[in-house]
Amino acid sequence: MKQSLGARTLLVPTPVLMVGTYGPTGTPNLMNAAWGGICCSDPPCVTVSVRTSRHTYDNIVQRKAFTVGIANEATVVEADYVGIASGRDVDKFAAAGLTHVAGEHVDAPYAAEFPLVLECRLRHTLELGIHTQFIGEIVDVKADEAILGEDGLPDILKIRPLVYDTAHKGYHAVGQLVGKAFSAGKKLL
Amino acid sequence: MKQSLGARTLLVPTPVLMVGTYGPTGTPNLMNAAWGGICCSDPPCVTVSVRTSRHTYDNIVQRKAFTVGIANEATVVEADYVGIASGRDVDKFAAAGLTHVAGEHVDAPYAAEFPLVLECRLRHTLELGIHTQFIGEIVDVKADEAILGEDGLPDILKIRPLVYDTAHKGYHAVGQLVGKAFSAGKKLL
User: Fold this and answer.
1) CATH code of B124's domain
2) Flavin reductase like domain spans which residues (chains A, B) (predicted)?
């Protein structure tokens, strides 16, 4: 018998997404988002939810583009800082010592320090309540060579992405492999 | 200098969501979804993306409700099985030995074996391409007492949820705490 905890946003795991945008005068900015992820395989799309009060909200509406960087163990301090400071008050890239790179395909920047980055063009905007959901089409993925496996694809144990626990506001590491998809369940077929 | 990997759905981590629905004759069904997560804090909403060809697609359209169970290390075989078999061909609950429980607030079932479950009422449907995004308002969260911390909230290290690596189709464990949110970044303020 389960206990009822009420209507709450208790889902695990969530990612730690670094949403990169340009402000009105071209200052690069980053936001820390846990509400987001892949939402379509073809065309490849990603969603990030942003409060209307955020600097990033105006930036995405204006430029119709954003990037999504994957925060990892090596960048946990920078990733958390991005979620505390506001781009209206400070140049977060400069304050955190992050290296600004202009997107190749979209009008949005990213930080070189995040090992995996998605360049996204805004496709849909959905007002849900306190958050607005922005859906971007992924036009390119960029990766550091150091995180690629022998097959040329990103290796999660090399990326070491942060796993966010919303209930206790904790950033966790990714642990060991516990099963292979499309394989572990075959014994029940 | 990063390498370009093209337009692909390479984002980590993603969750392993067990989407519970009723079929046309009332047979309970489960789908394994990695494309989904929280998308609004108030009203609390969750998104799951489903291909139109899936049994779950028709079920959500018909009943306008679904549940989201969190798959964990203890249920990795069942969770993967759910992603291999189709509810059109087999009663997945029966085949996997899962215990069917009717949702308390919505017209959808869940499996008792998943330690954390969200009951959701369909709010929005967005056709994106090969996937359709369903957004549900979370009307209740149900949790096993064994996964609750001393503060009464779910403890990620007790849940032991699966972390999915889409590039290499691997289910991973959650690792140790590497930083506290709204705290680790203060040294850069």
Assistant:
1) 2.30.110.10
2) 10-164
A81: chain B residues, CB-CB within 8 Å: 184-189
- Average pLDDT of chain B is 97
Would you call B138 helix, strand, or coil by DSSP? strand
Pair type for strands A131-143 and A116-127: antiparallel
User: Which chain B residues are within 8 Å of A152, Cβ to Cβ?
Assistant: 5
- State the DSSP string of A22-46: E-TTS-EEEEEESSEEEEEETTEEE
Read off the pLDDT of each residue in A120-137 and give the average, rounded to a whole number. Answer: 98
Do A45 and B128 lie within an 8 Å CB cutoff?
A: yes
Cβ-in-10-Å burial (0-12, 13-18, 19+) of A21 comes to: buried
Does the beta-carbon distance from A178 to B145 stay under 8 Å?
A: no
Q: What pLDDT was estimated at residue B1?
A: 84
pLDDT at B28: 96
- Provide the number of structural domains found in chain B: 1
Q: Answer yes or no: is B3 within a domain.
A: no
Partners of B178 on chain A (C-beta within 8 Å) are 73, 76, 162, 171-173
Q: Which domain holds residue B88?
A: 14-188
Residue in A closest to B152 by C-alpha:
A5
Q: CA-nearest residue of chain B to A150?
A: B168
Chains A–B, number of C-beta pairs less than 8 Å apart: 385
ipTM value for the complex: 0.97
**Any domain includes A79:** yes
Q: For residue A122, list its beta bridge partners.
A: A136
Q: Is position B6 within any domain?
A: no
**Would you say residue A151 lies in a domain?**
yes
